[in-house]
Each structure stands twice: as C-alpha cells, then as structure tokens.
Amino acid sequence: MLKIVQTSAIKPPRLKPGATIGIVAPASPFNTEFFEQGVTVLETMGYHVRLADGLFAAQGYLAGPDTQRATQIHAMFQDDSVDAVMCARGGFGCTHLLPLLDFELIRLNPKPFIGFSDITILHQAFFLRTGLVTFHGPLVCTLRNSDEVSRDSWQQALTHDQPLCFQTQASQSIRSGRAEGMLVGGNLSNLCHLVGTPFSVNYRDCILFIEDTGEALYRIDRMLTQMWMAGCLDGVVGVVLGNFENCGSEEGLRDLIGAQFKNIPIAAGLMAGHGEPNLTLPLGLPALLDANAGRLTLLECATA
What we know:
Elements: E1 2-3, E2 20-24, H1 32-44, E3 48-51, H2 66-78, E4 84-87, H3 94-97, H4 103-108, E5 113-115, H5 120-130, E6 134-136, H6 140-143, H7 148-159, E7 165-167, E8 173-175, E9 178-187, H8 188-193, E10 201-202, E11 206-213, H9 217-229, E12 238-245, H10 250-260, E13 266-267, E14 281-283, E15 286-290, E16 295-298
Parallel strand pairs: 1-10, 2-3, 2-4, 4-5, 5-6, 9-11, 11-12, 12-13
Antiparallel strand pairs: 6-14, 7-16, 8-13, 9-15, 15-16
C-alpha cells in the first residue's frame, strides 16, 4: 500500500471564458435527455463542448468497451484544443480502466478533470500516479438539476486564481479541533473498493473527505472497518463529511463517524457529493480544517 506523499502537486491550467470542455463516459451509459440538458447548462455558462468518439455507446451496464472508454480519456487529454475533461455520468466501470490508462500521457498534459461518484476511482488513480489536482464535482448529467450554488462553485474552482474556502452547513462539528493536511477522498464505497489493489493508499497526514448515497449505516460501518483493518486510515488527521443521501439518520451517521475516527477533528454538513448543492472540491492540495467553525480552507489555488 502506498502513502500519499505531500509533494508539489501538478495544477491544471485554469479555465478561461469560452474554453472547450471535452466530455467522456468512463463508467455507465447515461440518459440522453439528461445529458443534453447538462450540455445546455455548460453552453449557457459560456463554454464550448467537444464529445468524445463513442460517447453514446452502451455495453450492458458500461458505456461501451473498456478500451474505448480508456481511449476517450487519452484523446481528450492529448487534444490541445480541449481545455478540461468532464465526465458524463458515474455509475460503474472506472475500475476496469485502471490497467489501461497511460498515466504518463495524462501527467504531461494536465487539465482539469471533473466528476464524482464512480469517478472517485479516477481521482485517486490520477493523483497517485501523476500528482494531478482533480475536481470532485458535478457530472454533465447532474448539471441539469444543479442549483446556482453548485454552478457558481464549479466556476470558482476552475477559474479563480485564489485559494478556495468551504463552509459546512450550519457549522456542524462532530469533534472540534483544527487539522492541516492533504485533502483527499470522494465516494466512500469506491474508496473502499480500491483496498487491496495497486491503487489503494494510506491517508496518513491527510484530511479525508467522504460522501455516499443509498448505503445503510451498517454498510458504512463495514466499509470504514475494512479500511481501518487494511491500514488505509492510519494517521488521518481530519475528516469532512459531504452529502450522505439516503444513508440513515443524521444522528446515527454522526455517532458512527465519531466512533470510527477517534481523537481527530471531524466536520459534517459539507454540501458536496450526491445531492444538492454539490460543491466542487479540488482534491490533492494542502488544506486546513477548522471543525469548530465548520470551515475547510485550501492553502493553495487549485489551478495554475
């Protein structure tokens, strides 16, 4: 198991007005109507859109063959006319791509890479193998339902030249305190599924962000227990909970997380992940968590 080393990250170039967003489908097939509505949102925001070859393919619960989906990612990173890469949908399938990806190609062509849910697999793999800062944020198909807060957060994360600060809802604190470390994480189920693979990591000295949907409390307990027993969570310095949609009672979740992570600051209520709003979080940058104030502050700008 590898440890995330806190060295200088590769920051992608920030987006400029009129930039081109390349869209890939690395996981499951998607609803065409939802997709078109999401593309309209991007165009309304002033961006051009480029669709990857084979984007609308479907092979059962996958958006086409593995090699085709990996090729989409390579093509968009390699295309100099594409300024950022955004995923159409999550679902399942990103783990299939890990042995097929050319991480050196991605490292040499850094661009903002945006998505959440199953895309967590690629966020962790990209950062681990390339050092690229990626963005846990809306998918094209979820943009259709996104509120103004989510869209503004997306814009700020990708275009601003200053470090970002995030406030949890109602300043919820499970355990008070302050912690500084690398911000990592994403969808809990997918982080757990990486245990035992070459892309499993130890989050020592990191602030761990987690979110999920449709998972009963006992399953969240099971996943975290597995990650503890595998050594993934040894040395975590702080925890931030995003949206846990349809995951049991809020009180039960807070009690569970407090019991799983002892003696470190824990903040809840960060509106990111499944649900709305879905704030866009840059992953792979040093951050400061102030659980007392319910505030997560990045210590560096996410883009160059």
